[in-house]
Amino acid sequence: MGMVRLWQSLGLLVAALVALPIAVVVLQWAVFGLGEQTIWQHLLSTRLDRLTLNPLTLLFGVGIGVSLLGVSLAWLVSTCRFPGRGFFEWALMLPLAIPGYVMAFVYLALFTYAGPVQTWWRAQFGSSAGFPDIQGAGGVILVFSLVLYPYVYMLARSAFLNQGPAVMDAARILGLNGRQAFFRVALPVARPAIAGGVALALMETLADFGAVSVFNFDTYTTAVYSAWYGLFNLQVAAQLASLLLVFVVALLALERYSRRQARYHQRSSAAPRLLNLGRRGWLATAWCGLVLFMAFIVPTGQLLLWVLETGLADLDSRYLEFFWHTLMLGAMAAVLTAVLALLLGWIRRQSGTGRWMPGAVRLATLGYALPGSVLAVGIMLVFTGLDHGLEGLFGFRLMLAGSVAALVLAYVTRFLAVAHAPVEAGMESIRPSMLEAARSLGASPGRVLRCLTIPALRPALLTALILVFVDVMKEMPATLIMRPFGWDTLAVRIYTMTAEGQWERAALPALTLLLVGLVPVILLVRSSSRR
Amino acid sequence: MKCQALLSASLLSLLAACSDSTPTTQAPDAATAGSAARTPAAALLPVVVYSSRQEHLIKPIFDRFTEETGIEVQYQTGEEGPLIARLQAEGSATYADMLYTVDAGNLWSAANKGLLASVDSPVLEANIPEHLQDPENRWFGLSVRARTIIYSTERVDPSELSTYEALADAKWRGRLCLRTSKKVYNMSLVGSMIERLGLETTEELVKGWVANLAAPVFSSDTLVINAIAAGQCDVGLVNTYYLGRELEDHPELPVGLFWANQESSGVHVNVSGAGITRHAKNPEGAKRLLEWLSTDEPQRMFSELNLEFAANPAIPSVELVQSWGEFRQDELNVEAAGRNQAAAVMLMDRVGYR
Description:
The structure holds 2 protein chains of 2 kinds. Chain A is mainly alpha-helical.
């Protein structure tokens, strides 16, 4: 029992450390003064619709979009036989490597009035009347769905693969047809994984500022940044951001409540049998092809065109450095985040885990829902505070803020949720009875973790590693403010080029980033393909 | 036991990776050693700059400074808001000797927070006009960016144009394109209008702009230019260097430039500029850099690198920019833009200028 206590305390400590920057943001409520009050009144009287209606529209649309795309694609590639299945199985993960702000700009450039598509349209039909406005909610939802569906796709795919043939067989034996078996059995059993993926997609949607500002679509983050950059009031920005967290917590709680006590333990060593679609298989091919075209081929093609147009003038030896920094930071952050997610997830699963642990983990994974720059400032405040404190104690300055260690920890705070989702979904699929059996045989918690949990979680951990790696590579606000001198990454380079709207010139670093991102995606694919 | 060894090994390697990196925090000192080795004069500390101006626009200028003086310039680029927050959080321990931003509003905000030190320099006073510097000398404009009217050369006769205010006229209904109010350039323009015309009049005018919009507001000036070229709208407001860039690539673009308010207040200008931080470790070096930036060669580089205007009025513009003709600047101190920024943002919110 002493060991379990020790592990628990360790878990709480880790969670608290990760959650510290988030707490700093939330604590900005403490400085509520007259200036803040005026701004709040102003926001409520002029922006209420944009603070509530727009983000809700976005959440609703993106939620449906990523679920439709992610689940349908995952189901097709993991249970059906159709032309190109083997290719699509990994290719459909590729859009993960495209940053949302890049996708947004490509789509805006293609579909505005002055862009090639509408220009062609006018040449055919004489006017642009009736052409949907890409800057509206529809365009933003489309872009988010295309960028974020891979989260759902990846998690759902491993869930379907994990189900094995038994579940569907049982359903069929009980007289359900294929469609019924999918909706009434396979889908509900995969629900924790799907919910985890959708939650990630929605948290990223809420926290995004890059893509929405390309479209000038006003949402919650717009108000956060307007309070900060426009009204020079960082307090109100932080207060707004922490209100966002309350909303996210409520949303997550709702999902949990709707699942209630249901538990889904499923693990099969056999992959599901592939259903032969026959001639209808081409429909599946067309659907997968369409999504891949819109989410990957269009943006990559446009970036390539821009690179060719603006020339490779910018390409020099520094790119090797950007490339290397990007890779190093991604790898360090991915390993640390995955290890911590495993640790927290595992401690939480221990029986008699205490009241605090679930709440602590939930708090520590909220960093993903905070607008990047706001969280970055929270992290920076923690480290500069630490520097000041240590100086007071020991009389010298460590300058932790601005070290690589600080930047890596910033990534952990931001992306713990991304690693936590697959790890938790993986944990769910391990029968508690197995763990209990191991412990009743006298195995220490550490030994259970080493020799039972980790091997069973291998695919989930790999997913976590790669998701975090790719997300870190794309991350911009925390990297910008926390990076040590000279540690420019590809994302920083993109920022440099886009800060003044020169998107075409950002195509080169964006394309390079995409290439770096492909490495882990392909790695993941190769190791997570059908066993 | 094998799996335990693996786990601890991976944890150890991670810790090693983290501690390996600590020396990079010493980068500025390491660089000192480098420059000291190159210049026998020694004791030449590097100048550390936090900059929201893009790397490719400052690096050539800083490189030139280093060539000339042997003083290394280290810079950290990023967004204004976080950079200023960082400066504030670091307090007396900051690395930064200089803050460089691309608009007066953020410099005003930094000065207002007590982050910038007052600089007493006859060189700067001589080179930088009064209205482009802080009245208390905490920051100085280095390059000038003019925001003015552009029009379709196919559908608008320049004689129809006059002032920013006149774009609120019903005559332009369905013909105006604007960039988002979230961009600081528009906050500054409206801020300067508030200073000149008062809150109520300005609100009426901006309301008129919004009523005249031909399309939802765009996220960049370049999009506004392209919309006019493609026929989506006829007139717009942009910073001149965006048009310059587009014209360099597409000289045939049917978009012309009109200098606004020449009979009244003059064209609205903003600055990119810099100030020395209050807790600078190398205030002498920073002052030397700031003064040098106001002299002929770097001033010429400012106008060449980004088609802006030199803050120093003695420096001529590049040919393309000269082709737009002479213009009169609004001589209202650019500091007003920062002072009125919050009011401008709220005003634009009220009238639905997104």
